[in-house]
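pasting for ref
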Amino acid sequence: MKHTIKMISLVIVSLAIVFISGCSNNKPTPTVGTFTEIKDEVKVVEAFGTVVVKDIKNLNIDFPAFVTEVYVDEGQKVKKGDILISLDMSEVTGMLEEKRLALEVAKKELQSILVNFDLDKLQNTLSQKKNTILKEKKELKRLEDELQNFNSPTLQKLLYDIKVSTEIYEREKAELEVRRNLLKEQAISQQAFDEFKKITEQKKHEVKSLELSLAENKYQRQLEVDNLKFSISTREKSISNLEIEIKKFTYNQEQSYFAQNAKVEQLENEVRQLESKLSKNFIQDNNIVANVAEGIVYNIGYVSGEPVVSQKSLLSLKDLHLVLVKADVPEEFIKDIAESVEAVIIPLADTSRKYHGQVISISRMAIRKGGETVVPIEISINDLDEFLLENFNVDIEITKK
Protein backbone atom coordinates (compact mmCIF):
# COMPACT_ATOMS: atom_id res chain seq x y z
CA MET A 1 0.00 0.00 0.00
CA LYS A 2 2.77 2.36 0.93
CA HIS A 3 4.56 1.50 -2.27
CA THR A 4 1.44 2.38 -4.28
CA ILE A 5 1.15 5.78 -2.55
CA LYS A 6 4.80 6.54 -3.32
CA MET A 7 4.29 5.68 -6.98
CA ILE A 8 1.22 7.95 -7.20
CA SER A 9 3.20 10.81 -5.54
CA LEU A 10 6.04 10.41 -8.05
CA VAL A 11 3.62 10.54 -10.96
CA ILE A 12 1.99 13.70 -9.62
CA VAL A 13 5.37 15.42 -9.14
CA SER A 14 6.47 14.40 -12.64
CA LEU A 15 3.29 15.81 -14.21
CA ALA A 16 3.75 19.07 -12.30
CA ILE A 17 7.31 19.43 -13.58
CA VAL A 18 6.22 18.78 -17.18
CA PHE A 19 3.40 21.35 -16.85
CA ILE A 20 5.72 24.04 -15.46
CA SER A 21 8.29 23.37 -18.18
CA GLY A 22 5.63 23.63 -20.87
CA CYS A 23 4.46 27.01 -19.54
CA SER A 24 8.03 28.28 -19.47
CA ASN A 25 8.61 27.28 -23.10
CA ASN A 26 5.57 29.31 -24.22
CA LYS A 27 7.19 32.61 -23.09
CA PRO A 28 8.84 34.66 -25.92
CA THR A 29 12.58 34.71 -25.78
CA PRO A 30 14.00 38.26 -25.82
CA THR A 31 16.39 38.91 -28.68
CA VAL A 32 19.07 41.50 -29.39
CA GLY A 33 16.91 42.82 -32.23
CA THR A 34 14.30 44.13 -29.77
CA PHE A 35 16.83 46.54 -28.21
CA THR A 36 18.03 47.61 -31.64
CA GLU A 37 14.51 48.48 -32.72
CA ILE A 38 14.01 50.63 -29.63
CA LYS A 39 17.23 52.49 -30.32
CA ASP A 40 16.28 52.92 -33.98
CA GLU A 41 13.10 54.68 -32.91
CA VAL A 42 15.11 57.55 -31.40
CA LYS A 43 15.00 60.14 -34.19
CA VAL A 44 15.78 63.29 -32.20
CA VAL A 45 18.58 64.88 -30.23
CA GLU A 46 17.42 66.34 -26.95
CA ALA A 47 18.81 69.63 -25.65
CA PHE A 48 18.04 72.35 -23.13
CA GLY A 49 17.95 76.04 -24.01
CA THR A 50 16.78 79.56 -23.24
CA VAL A 51 14.54 81.98 -25.13
CA VAL A 52 16.46 85.14 -26.04
CA VAL A 53 15.83 88.36 -27.96
CA LYS A 54 18.67 88.80 -30.42
CA ASP A 55 18.13 92.43 -31.41
CA ILE A 56 17.83 95.23 -28.86
CA LYS A 57 17.40 98.81 -29.97
CA ASN A 58 18.48 101.58 -27.61
CA LEU A 59 16.66 104.82 -28.43
CA ASN A 60 19.06 107.72 -27.87
CA ILE A 61 19.00 111.37 -28.84
CA ASP A 62 21.95 113.75 -28.72
CA PHE A 63 20.25 117.13 -28.63
CA PRO A 64 18.71 119.17 -25.79
CA ALA A 65 15.14 118.19 -24.86
CA PHE A 66 12.80 117.64 -21.93
CA VAL A 67 10.50 114.68 -21.36
CA THR A 68 6.90 115.89 -21.23
CA GLU A 69 5.13 112.52 -21.00
CA VAL A 70 5.98 108.81 -20.79
CA TYR A 71 3.20 106.68 -22.29
CA VAL A 72 4.54 103.16 -21.73
CA ASP A 73 5.56 100.90 -18.85
CA GLU A 74 8.38 98.41 -18.38
CA GLY A 75 7.62 95.16 -20.23
CA GLN A 76 4.80 96.68 -22.30
CA LYS A 77 4.29 95.27 -25.79
CA VAL A 78 4.22 97.89 -28.58
CA LYS A 79 3.97 97.95 -32.34
CA LYS A 80 5.59 100.14 -34.96
CA GLY A 81 4.45 103.76 -34.78
CA ASP A 82 3.12 103.61 -31.20
CA ILE A 83 3.94 106.75 -29.23
CA LEU A 84 6.31 105.93 -26.37
CA ILE A 85 7.49 109.32 -25.06
CA SER A 86 6.67 112.96 -25.82
CA LEU A 87 9.44 115.55 -25.79
CA ASP A 88 9.76 119.31 -25.60
CA MET A 89 12.20 119.93 -28.45
CA SER A 90 11.67 123.68 -28.76
CA GLU A 91 15.33 124.41 -27.96
CA VAL A 92 16.76 122.29 -30.77
CA THR A 93 14.08 123.28 -33.32
CA GLY A 94 14.74 126.94 -32.52
CA MET A 95 18.47 126.31 -32.91
CA LEU A 96 17.86 124.68 -36.30
CA GLU A 97 15.76 127.62 -37.51
CA GLU A 98 18.47 130.07 -36.42
CA LYS A 99 21.12 128.06 -38.31
CA ARG A 100 18.97 127.98 -41.43
CA LEU A 101 18.45 131.77 -41.35
CA ALA A 102 22.18 132.34 -40.74
CA LEU A 103 22.95 130.05 -43.67
CA GLU A 104 20.70 132.03 -46.00
CA VAL A 105 22.39 135.30 -44.98
CA ALA A 106 25.87 133.77 -45.38
CA LYS A 107 25.01 132.54 -48.88
CA LYS A 108 23.83 136.02 -49.94
CA GLU A 109 27.04 137.55 -48.60
CA LEU A 110 29.03 134.99 -50.53
CA GLN A 111 27.18 135.93 -53.71
CA SER A 112 28.00 139.57 -53.20
CA ILE A 113 31.71 138.70 -53.00
CA LEU A 114 31.55 136.84 -56.31
CA VAL A 115 31.42 140.05 -58.39
CA ASN A 116 33.76 138.54 -60.92
CA PHE A 117 31.96 136.13 -63.25
CA ASP A 118 35.13 134.16 -63.94
CA LEU A 119 35.64 133.49 -60.27
CA ASP A 120 32.04 132.38 -59.96
CA LYS A 121 32.39 130.09 -62.92
CA LEU A 122 35.69 128.66 -61.75
CA GLN A 123 34.39 128.09 -58.25
CA ASN A 124 31.33 126.28 -59.51
CA THR A 125 33.47 124.13 -61.76
CA LEU A 126 35.78 123.36 -58.86
CA SER A 127 32.85 122.39 -56.65
CA GLN A 128 31.41 120.13 -59.35
CA LYS A 129 34.73 118.44 -59.92
CA LYS A 130 35.19 117.87 -56.20
CA ASN A 131 31.73 116.36 -55.91
CA THR A 132 32.41 114.20 -58.95
CA ILE A 133 35.73 112.97 -57.62
CA LEU A 134 34.16 112.14 -54.26
CA LYS A 135 31.56 110.03 -56.04
CA GLU A 136 34.23 108.37 -58.16
CA LYS A 137 36.36 107.59 -55.11
CA LYS A 138 33.34 106.13 -53.40
CA GLU A 139 32.63 104.05 -56.48
CA LEU A 140 36.29 103.02 -56.68
CA LYS A 141 36.25 101.88 -53.07
CA ARG A 142 33.11 99.86 -53.75
CA LEU A 143 34.59 98.20 -56.84
CA GLU A 144 37.89 97.42 -55.12
CA ASP A 145 36.03 95.99 -52.15
CA GLU A 146 33.92 93.80 -54.44
CA LEU A 147 37.00 92.66 -56.32
CA GLN A 148 38.99 91.90 -53.19
CA ASN A 149 36.26 90.37 -51.03
CA PHE A 150 33.99 88.89 -53.72
CA ASN A 151 30.98 90.51 -52.03
CA SER A 152 29.03 91.56 -55.11
CA PRO A 153 25.90 89.52 -55.91
CA THR A 154 27.33 88.49 -59.30
CA LEU A 155 30.67 87.30 -57.90
CA GLN A 156 29.02 85.59 -54.95
CA LYS A 157 26.64 83.74 -57.26
CA LEU A 158 29.52 82.64 -59.49
CA LEU A 159 31.49 81.43 -56.46
CA TYR A 160 28.44 79.59 -55.16
CA ASP A 161 27.74 78.03 -58.55
CA ILE A 162 31.39 76.94 -58.84
CA LYS A 163 31.25 75.39 -55.39
CA VAL A 164 28.02 73.51 -56.08
CA SER A 165 29.14 72.40 -59.57
CA THR A 166 32.52 71.28 -58.22
CA GLU A 167 30.86 69.25 -55.47
CA ILE A 168 28.55 67.62 -58.01
CA TYR A 169 31.48 66.94 -60.35
CA GLU A 170 33.57 65.39 -57.56
CA ARG A 171 30.67 63.12 -56.64
CA GLU A 172 30.14 62.18 -60.28
CA LYS A 173 33.88 61.52 -60.71
CA ALA A 174 33.93 59.25 -57.66
CA GLU A 175 30.85 57.46 -58.93
CA LEU A 176 32.54 57.07 -62.33
CA GLU A 177 35.42 55.20 -60.69
CA VAL A 178 32.90 52.93 -58.98
CA ARG A 179 31.25 52.24 -62.30
CA ARG A 180 34.62 51.69 -63.97
CA ASN A 181 35.25 48.88 -61.48
CA LEU A 182 31.76 47.53 -62.11
CA LEU A 183 32.53 47.57 -65.83
CA LYS A 184 35.71 45.57 -65.25
CA GLU A 185 33.63 43.06 -63.32
CA GLN A 186 31.08 43.14 -66.17
CA ALA A 187 28.39 44.26 -63.69
CA ILE A 188 27.31 47.05 -66.05
CA SER A 189 27.43 47.46 -69.81
CA GLN A 190 30.00 49.54 -71.72
CA GLN A 191 27.16 51.70 -73.00
CA ALA A 192 25.92 52.49 -69.48
CA PHE A 193 29.47 53.33 -68.42
CA ASP A 194 30.05 55.57 -71.46
CA GLU A 195 26.78 57.44 -70.87
CA PHE A 196 27.68 58.14 -67.26
CA LYS A 197 31.22 59.14 -68.29
CA LYS A 198 29.70 61.64 -70.75
CA ILE A 199 27.58 63.12 -67.96
CA THR A 200 30.69 63.42 -65.77
CA GLU A 201 32.58 65.21 -68.54
CA GLN A 202 29.66 67.62 -68.90
CA LYS A 203 29.86 68.41 -65.18
CA LYS A 204 33.59 69.04 -65.53
CA HIS A 205 32.91 71.38 -68.44
CA GLU A 206 30.31 73.24 -66.36
CA VAL A 207 32.89 73.84 -63.62
CA LYS A 208 35.47 75.09 -66.14
CA SER A 209 32.88 77.34 -67.78
CA LEU A 210 31.91 78.87 -64.45
CA GLU A 211 35.57 79.40 -63.53
CA LEU A 212 36.12 81.18 -66.86
CA SER A 213 33.07 83.35 -66.22
CA LEU A 214 34.46 84.27 -62.81
CA ALA A 215 37.84 85.16 -64.30
CA GLU A 216 36.18 87.25 -67.03
CA ASN A 217 34.02 89.05 -64.46
CA LYS A 218 37.07 89.82 -62.33
CA TYR A 219 38.94 91.04 -65.39
CA GLN A 220 36.15 93.39 -66.41
CA ARG A 221 35.93 94.75 -62.87
CA GLN A 222 39.67 95.30 -62.82
CA LEU A 223 39.33 97.28 -66.06
CA GLU A 224 36.64 99.41 -64.41
CA VAL A 225 38.92 99.98 -61.42
CA ASP A 226 41.86 100.97 -63.62
CA ASN A 227 39.73 103.33 -65.73
CA LEU A 228 38.27 104.91 -62.62
CA LYS A 229 41.72 105.41 -61.11
CA PHE A 230 42.84 107.12 -64.28
CA SER A 231 39.74 109.33 -64.28
CA ILE A 232 40.29 110.27 -60.63
CA SER A 233 43.94 111.06 -61.29
CA THR A 234 42.97 113.27 -64.24
CA ARG A 235 40.32 115.07 -62.24
CA GLU A 236 42.69 115.61 -59.33
CA LYS A 237 45.14 117.29 -61.69
CA SER A 238 42.32 119.39 -63.13
CA ILE A 239 41.23 120.43 -59.64
CA SER A 240 44.79 121.34 -58.76
CA ASN A 241 45.03 123.55 -61.86
CA LEU A 242 41.72 125.23 -61.06
CA GLU A 243 42.80 125.96 -57.53
CA ILE A 244 46.01 127.56 -58.82
CA GLU A 245 43.98 129.67 -61.25
CA ILE A 246 41.65 130.85 -58.51
CA LYS A 247 44.63 131.92 -56.44
CA LYS A 248 45.61 134.32 -59.21
CA PHE A 249 42.84 136.66 -58.15
CA THR A 250 43.65 139.44 -55.73
CA TYR A 251 44.58 138.44 -52.21
CA ASN A 252 41.71 140.35 -50.59
CA GLN A 253 39.10 138.89 -52.92
CA GLU A 254 40.51 135.45 -52.40
CA GLN A 255 40.65 135.72 -48.63
CA SER A 256 37.17 137.20 -48.42
CA TYR A 257 35.72 134.56 -50.68
CA PHE A 258 37.27 131.56 -48.95
CA ALA A 259 36.50 132.88 -45.49
CA GLN A 260 32.86 133.38 -46.40
CA ASN A 261 32.64 130.09 -48.25
CA ALA A 262 34.05 128.30 -45.20
CA LYS A 263 31.39 129.97 -43.10
CA VAL A 264 28.68 128.76 -45.47
CA GLU A 265 30.07 125.22 -45.45
CA GLN A 266 30.27 125.23 -41.66
CA LEU A 267 26.67 126.41 -41.38
CA GLU A 268 25.55 123.84 -43.96
CA ASN A 269 27.29 121.13 -41.97
CA GLU A 270 25.68 122.33 -38.74
CA VAL A 271 22.23 122.38 -40.38
CA ARG A 272 22.77 118.88 -41.79
CA GLN A 273 23.85 117.60 -38.40
CA LEU A 274 20.81 119.03 -36.66
CA GLU A 275 18.47 117.75 -39.37
CA SER A 276 20.10 114.34 -39.16
CA LYS A 277 19.60 114.24 -35.39
CA LEU A 278 15.91 115.07 -35.84
CA SER A 279 15.33 112.64 -38.71
CA LYS A 280 15.91 109.37 -36.88
CA ASN A 281 13.27 106.75 -37.63
CA PHE A 282 11.96 106.75 -34.05
CA ILE A 283 11.27 110.51 -33.99
CA GLN A 284 7.92 111.81 -35.28
CA ASP A 285 7.12 115.46 -34.62
CA ASN A 286 7.73 115.82 -30.87
CA ASN A 287 7.25 112.13 -30.11
CA ILE A 288 9.45 109.09 -29.69
CA VAL A 289 7.73 106.16 -31.42
CA ALA A 290 8.39 102.43 -31.75
CA ASN A 291 10.60 101.63 -34.73
CA VAL A 292 10.12 97.84 -34.71
CA ALA A 293 7.14 95.85 -35.99
CA GLU A 294 6.58 94.36 -32.52
CA GLY A 295 8.66 94.97 -29.45
CA ILE A 296 8.89 94.97 -25.67
CA VAL A 297 9.73 98.16 -23.77
CA TYR A 298 12.37 98.05 -21.08
CA ASN A 299 14.99 100.23 -19.37
CA ILE A 300 12.86 103.38 -19.43
CA GLY A 301 15.38 106.04 -18.49
CA TYR A 302 13.26 109.10 -17.76
CA VAL A 303 10.14 110.48 -16.11
CA SER A 304 8.04 113.48 -17.07
CA GLY A 305 9.82 116.83 -16.70
CA GLU A 306 13.32 115.34 -16.73
CA PRO A 307 15.97 116.76 -19.10
CA VAL A 308 17.42 114.31 -21.63
CA VAL A 309 21.18 113.70 -21.67
CA SER A 310 23.00 112.05 -24.58
CA GLN A 311 24.80 109.54 -22.35
CA LYS A 312 21.51 107.95 -21.26
CA SER A 313 18.99 106.14 -23.47
CA LEU A 314 15.37 107.22 -23.47
CA LEU A 315 14.40 103.54 -23.39
CA SER A 316 15.17 100.27 -25.14
CA LEU A 317 13.07 98.01 -27.38
CA LYS A 318 13.46 94.28 -27.73
CA ASP A 319 12.48 93.25 -31.27
CA LEU A 320 10.02 90.36 -30.97
CA HIS A 321 10.59 89.44 -34.62
CA LEU A 322 14.12 88.42 -33.66
CA VAL A 323 13.32 86.02 -30.83
CA LEU A 324 15.11 82.67 -30.87
CA VAL A 325 16.35 79.86 -28.66
CA LYS A 326 19.98 79.48 -27.67
CA ALA A 327 21.01 76.00 -26.62
CA ASP A 328 24.06 73.80 -26.07
CA VAL A 329 24.40 70.38 -27.69
CA PRO A 330 26.89 67.85 -26.21
CA GLU A 331 29.77 67.21 -28.57
CA GLU A 332 28.87 63.53 -29.03
CA PHE A 333 25.51 64.48 -30.60
CA ILE A 334 26.55 67.42 -32.80
CA LYS A 335 27.21 65.07 -35.73
CA ASP A 336 23.52 64.13 -35.73
CA ILE A 337 22.19 67.63 -36.48
CA ALA A 338 22.62 70.26 -39.18
CA GLU A 339 21.39 73.73 -40.02
CA SER A 340 17.78 73.89 -41.28
CA VAL A 341 16.69 70.66 -39.54
CA GLU A 342 13.37 70.84 -37.70
CA ALA A 343 13.13 71.33 -33.95
CA VAL A 344 10.32 71.16 -31.40
CA ILE A 345 10.49 73.63 -28.50
CA ILE A 346 8.73 72.78 -25.21
CA PRO A 347 8.65 75.49 -22.50
CA LEU A 348 9.13 74.30 -18.93
CA ALA A 349 6.51 76.86 -17.91
CA ASP A 350 3.87 74.76 -19.73
CA THR A 351 5.03 71.44 -21.16
CA SER A 352 1.69 70.96 -22.94
CA ARG A 353 2.70 73.70 -25.39
CA LYS A 354 4.88 72.92 -28.36
CA TYR A 355 6.55 75.40 -30.70
CA HIS A 356 8.30 74.65 -33.96
CA GLY A 357 11.43 76.00 -35.58
CA GLN A 358 14.66 75.15 -37.34
CA VAL A 359 18.32 75.12 -36.41
CA ILE A 360 19.59 78.39 -37.93
CA SER A 361 23.20 78.33 -36.78
CA ILE A 362 25.73 75.93 -35.29
CA SER A 363 28.83 77.40 -33.69
CA ARG A 364 32.12 76.52 -35.34
CA MET A 365 33.74 76.32 -31.90
CA ALA A 366 33.03 73.99 -28.99
CA ILE A 367 33.22 75.29 -25.40
CA ARG A 368 33.60 73.83 -21.92
CA LYS A 369 30.48 74.27 -19.83
CA GLY A 370 29.43 72.54 -16.64
CA GLY A 371 32.25 70.04 -16.87
CA GLU A 372 31.46 68.88 -20.41
CA THR A 373 32.20 69.98 -23.96
CA VAL A 374 29.22 71.46 -25.82
CA VAL A 375 28.54 73.26 -29.08
CA PRO A 376 26.28 76.37 -28.94
CA ILE A 377 23.43 76.47 -31.47
CA GLU A 378 20.56 78.84 -32.31
CA ILE A 379 17.00 77.79 -33.20
CA SER A 380 14.30 79.93 -34.82
CA ILE A 381 10.73 80.03 -33.50
CA ASN A 382 8.16 79.89 -36.31
CA ASP A 383 4.98 80.04 -34.25
CA LEU A 384 5.94 82.51 -31.50
CA ASP A 385 3.04 83.74 -29.35
CA GLU A 386 2.61 85.96 -26.30
CA PHE A 387 3.08 83.07 -23.87
CA LEU A 388 6.70 82.38 -24.76
CA LEU A 389 8.70 85.01 -22.86
CA GLU A 390 12.32 86.02 -22.92
CA ASN A 391 14.57 83.94 -20.62
CA PHE A 392 12.06 81.06 -20.51
CA ASN A 393 13.83 77.71 -20.16
CA VAL A 394 12.84 75.20 -22.81
CA ASP A 395 13.40 71.57 -23.72
CA ILE A 396 14.28 71.03 -27.36
CA GLU A 397 13.86 67.98 -29.58
CA ILE A 398 15.99 68.36 -32.70
CA THR A 399 15.28 66.06 -35.63
CA LYS A 400 18.32 64.07 -36.61
CA LYS A 401 19.64 64.81 -40.07
